[in-house]
Amino acid sequence: MSDVSNTLGGTPTKDGAFLSVRDLKVHFTTSDGIVKATDGLSFDLERGKTLGIVGESGSGKSVSSSAIMGLHRGTNAKLSGEILLDGVDLLHVSDEEMRKRRGRDVAMIFQDPLSAMHPYYTVGNQIMEAYQVHNDVTKREARKRAIEMLDRVGIPQPDRRVDDYPHQFSGGMRQRAMIAMGLINNPSLLIADEPTTALDVTVQAQILDLLQDLQRDFDAAIIIITHDLGVVAEMADDVLVMYAGRAVEYGPGKEILTHPEMPYTWGLLSSVPDLTASTEAKLIPIRGNPPSLLNPPPGCPFEPRCDHVAKVGGDLCKTVLPELTPARSGGNHTKRCHLENPDEVYEAEILPEIAPDLVED
Amino acid sequence: MSDTTTAAATSVAPASTETVLSVENLKMHFPVKGSGVIRRTVGHVKAVDGVSFEVAKGTALGLVGESGCGKSTTGRMVTRLYKPTEGKINFEGTDIANYTGRQLHPMRREIQMIFQDPSTSLNPRHTVGSIIGAPLRIHKMVPKDKVLSRVQELLEIVGLNPEHYNRYPHEFSGGQRQRIGIARALTLQPKLLVADEPVSALDVSIQAQVINLLQDLQKEFDISFLFIAHDLAIVRHFCPEVAVMYLGKIVEIGDRESIYERAHHPYTQALLSAVPDVKQAAIGGRRERIRLEGDVPSPINPPSGCHFRTRCAIAKDICSVVEPPLLQIGKKHKVACHFPGEIHQHPEKPVTAPLLGVDEFGAPDPGASPAEVPGDGPGYADTWYDLANNSRGRA
């Protein structure tokens, strides 16, 4: 765990948040121009809390979290801004220092455990390696620890399964092994990039249970990246909705999912069927496709797909990028939209369509 | 439960709707070869082990279940990409289960398939025009000089720019590629479409577009769907009738209300309770649900008796001895469980025991004689087993 508290970045973090990302930009130079995969992202996360990041593919969710892991080092990506983890700016530490922190302070669980694990090494070997890199221990001790972790994440007969190869594990078990690998050094920040997308609902429920149990035990901060709003609703304390590399709505999960004030979030909510909605109603998709990040629209990036542009008036949506401003409902809820009265539009137009039973109150 | 409301019963006369597809006791056993030179068959993966269902004209039957339960294999047998080991596939009255390649040729026009992953199911070296036009040329549906105009028409139907017939699949986004796959499936104006996870590879906002498109097409061309998916919410939205599969067998089948409001099988109940719910945000925390421990057992060596008993919370002795039959318990509701009932209301005694002629522990009961089990067969019978009175009920 990060016992060093030498503030390299200098700027004090907002009320002592454990992880504080400030104006993070990740730009890739390509032959066609600069791809602004992440463009000015800021958020805070405390220990023991979970942040859910949602958005479509290509909205910059994974790129931003890889930046926290320092996975863009050595590529042509241009990073700017600040990533303060316990006061230390991860963007400005040396490669060697980052290597020491990766896996010990910050760990990541990837989407597809079959491609994230090495097929030639046994599961135990890979978990042991993660432990031995950061701890001066013998192989025997590392193996004991690996078995302990496999047991902790619910793999049956861990002392035998530790010698299995990844292909001998089922999908759910592989994801558990990945989690064991991620947590073996008690990281204080765990990034889970679509941890359950490749899994069945029953296994997904098991994995989410496991993540919550482990969070309670280790007091870790978790960033969970997903496109499943149901997962976010059940797991996240805070929610960050991303679109075209920017945060378009950010705040407490309950606020975002019950009183969203940004048309893109409305679109996400209305395009998923749920288990109790009327089956007569049509799904309301978001029309069109996400914009290219090579030359995004000059104004609001969501403007070409937005149904509420007319309510703003003038060319405001087309020409001016809205700032992330406090939502009408107050609190820590912020949104990026020109609409004057998004809460009223939501109550009047969106809510009757997605949850008619909630309208009257 | 059998709500014996006569009004509802009279309004739905049996066989009022035309059945397009009727599948009976369909089995697919893949041989497992041993290692060594001779590679003798050492066992079978019972991917699908006796499923029966019907798809009515213009409607959709959803097949749901965890990966490896045999839902995709069932779809592939219906399109006859696989030759079933056993069973009947009655398509419009003719059994196509044993058709040869040549006999199948005209059938391919009637049954088409939409695949899960649009980026691997389209040939990257062919233009969209040639991909969609291929079925037209093979089946000689239109004269050669009319192929292009028909392709453009199809592109327009699925909401793509007809000018783009000359482009390659990689020039399209995921959602657009899935539309190309749908256009290809539509070219021959099929009566039955087997959609194997058509939206699981797509983003949520695009998913809704594709689902709406499929619904529009269904209405316009009166197509029947066999809709395979693991997303229970999407299946509920799309399919009036749903079958839940587990380890190669249908464990519960019924109309939408029976499955989603009154599920009687513990597996269906567990599946439904595992779906994360957006509405939970208002309450906070995780939803109360049934935990399923462990993984699906291997289909090479499935558990004896009921396949689900190893993970079932209410399993008793009889479950390991006798396999529960698919018992019809409502007008349009069948369940394969010895203790069928709504959550926390499962009966104490196996309701199936007297029907099967066994006692409550599964041992043969000399006093009882096996009776005919209502619900055997692909469709729904007029009479069913009334759980409330433990007797035969009827509409």
Automatic annotation (TrEMBL), chain A:
Recorded topology in the membrane: Peripheral membrane protein
Short name of one Pfam family: oligo_HPY
Main localization, broad class: membrane
Keywords of the record: ATP-binding, Cell membrane, Membrane, Nucleotide-binding, Transport
This protein's GO CC annotations: plasma membrane
Any one GO molecular function term: ATP hydrolysis activity
Protein name: Peptide ABC transporter ATP-binding protein
Organism: Nocardioides luteus
From TrEMBL, chain B:
Pfam families membership: ABC_tran, oligo_HPY
Coiled coil regions in record: none
Molecular function terms, GO-annotated: ATP binding; ATP hydrolysis activity
CDD domains reported for this sequence: ABC_NikE_OppD_transporters
InterPro entries: AAA+_ATPase, ABC_transp_ATP-bind, ABC_transporter-like_ATP-bd, ABC_transporter-like_CS, Oligopep_ABC_C, P-loop_NTPase
BP GO annotations: peptide transport; transmembrane transport
Location of the region described as Disordered in the Swiss-Prot/TrEMBL record: 362-381
Keywords: ATP-binding, Nucleotide-binding, Transport
Ranges where the ABC transporter domain occurs: 32-272
Highest taxon listed in the record's lineage: Bacteria
Cross-referenced PANTHER family: D,D-DIPEPTIDE TRANSPORT ATP-BINDING PROTEIN DDPF-RELATED, TRANSPORT ATP-BINDING PROTEIN
NCBIfam families: oligo_HPY, PRK11308.1
Family: Belongs to the ABC transporter superfamily.
Protein name: Dipeptide/oligopeptide/nickel ABC transporter ATP-binding protein
Species: Nocardioides luteus
